TrEMBL record:
InterPro entries: PQQD, PqqD_sf. This is Lasso peptide biosynthesis PqqD family chaperone. Gene3D superfamilies: Coenzyme PQQ synthesis protein D (PqqD). It comes from Streptomyces tsukubensis.
Length: 87
């Protein structure tokens, strides 16, 4: 699975966090350090398994739990029309 920001979404990186703006709705979304880390990996082309592995290495969580949390994050971002899944 690959993710890309939708064309009408802008991203601004903080030191560790990220803010996404849906330019069509004017809604902002804040991603904490964990969410930003995960989204950056996807945007850089990492596959889901690689993202889960790297998240488990960086944060105090198992790879299985990281995978579940990643699924929740991706689902939320898709529901909010912030990202699109590319095959």
């Amino acid at each position: 699975m690959h993710l890309a920001l939708r064309s009408d979404v802008s991203a601004t990186d903080g030191d560790f966090d990220m803010v996404l703006l849906n330019e069509c709705t004017g809604r902002y979304w804040y991603l904490n350090a964990t969410g930003a880390f995960i989204l950056r990996l996807f945007l850089d082309g990492s596959e889901r398994a690689e993202v889960a592995r790297r998240a488990a290495e960086r944060f105090p969580v198992s790879e299985e739990k990281a995978s579940q949390d990643i699924e929740t994050l991706v689902s939320s971002l898709c529901t909010a029309d912030l990202v699109k899944v590319k095959a």
